[in-house]
Amino acid sequence: MPEETIFSKIIRKEIPADIVYEDDRVTAFRDINPQAPTHILIIPNKLIATANDVQPEDEQTLGHLFIVAAKLAHDEGVADDGYRLIVNCNKHGGQEVFHLHMHLLGGRKLGPMLSR
Ligand code: AMP
Question: Is the pTM of this model over 0.90?
């Protein structure tokens, strides 16, 4: 079993977070250090450490992440102008929290995808 992170505590409401959506498969909350006017993290309630650890049985849950992302983009008013969804993996991807999560960033022009 992968080690729990602070995100498991957020899912269980053991520590506070600005939760904007939750259901039996997914929790979404505002990033504590926002990089854009809208910066939400969407995470599976099941602890999957990294994108490398995704299993065939996670397919529906991870597809659901996109459904929730589209709903939240609409709710946040960023859907039409556009936004960016990011999943970082391990060291080169810049992953800091080892509970798979999708960043939803929007509310301004985000610039080039990668810093050069
Ligand atoms: P990553 O680099 O993809 O692993 O992103 C981790 C993200 O989690 C960063 O953007 C952090 O700002 C965010 N983060 C870390 N701790 C918390 C927390 N307690 N509540 C909300 N966001 C957090």
Answer: yes
